[in-house]
Amino acid sequence: MAAEENECMSRQDSELMKSWELEAILTNRTLRFVLRLEQQFVCPSCGGIVLNPHQTGCGHIFCARCVRAYLENGGSSKCPLDNIPIKPEEIFQDNCCKRELLNLEIYCTNAPDCTQRVTLCDLQDHLKACQYERIGCSNVGCNDTVLRKNLLDHQRNVCSFRLESCYHCRQSFPASQLLVHQKNSCLDMEIPCPNKCLQMIKRHKLQAHADECLEVETDCIYKNYGCTFRVREHYNLTLKQVKVSFY
């Protein structure tokens, strides 16, 4: 009996793979049919829509999930409608019921924003183009999902992970890191001289500028004579130009 059940379930897995793709898409979505849904398309066990209808030997239709649960119950399950034992070898996919269901017209699952009406079998293709479908941003590092109609604007103008070129060095960085780059590490960014000489110096030229900056602090030229003061370089230049007399 166990071998028969495994063989039956394996065959069903292969047959239902395509239908389960639609079932996976509909996870956490609500289907609204244009016309009232007939009872034959509702699983009598779980109350859900029979996206993958399976018929038992007693003639009742259940969704694939409930059928699988019955089969995994070790062959002791009974039909909840007539109490007749459910036999794995008597279960088959009801393609007639499936075709009827897939041809029913529904509202887009993104209603009321999207006003399109499509058949259930065309829903997957519609969602691939629906402007109100939420999809993930493709920028590296971004986990946001946005409406398809807003995606391009999000990727180019809103996303914190969009790449932007540094105005100074022309290298590209995520937008959220650009200001940090310019403030702390951009070598071509002009910053105020740390010695307060009022000049703006590119970061990679700071050391060269420090060697000639007149506001840099240095030892007094009379250090060898006992002066312990540190003075601005321009003061030393003045001392060198002025004759100092000692009395």
UniProtKB/TrEMBL annotation:
Any signal peptide, and if so, which residues?
A: none
An example GO biological process term is: regulation of canonical NF-kappaB signal transduction
Per the record, its GO cellular-component terms are: cytoplasmic side of plasma membrane
Identify the residues that the record assigns to the TRAF-type domain, covering every copy.
126-178, 180-231
Domain of life from the UniProt record = Eukaryota
A GO MF annotation of the entry reads: zinc ion binding
What does the UniProt keyword field contain?
A: Metal-binding, Zinc, Zinc-finger
Give start-end positions of each zinc finger (TRAF-type).
126-178, 180-231
**What's the protein called, per UniProt?**
Tnf receptor-associated factor 5
Species assigned in the record = Sinocyclocheilus grahami (Dianchi golden-line fish)
Question: Organism classification, top ranks?
Answer: Eukaryota, Metazoa, Chordata, Craniata, Vertebrata
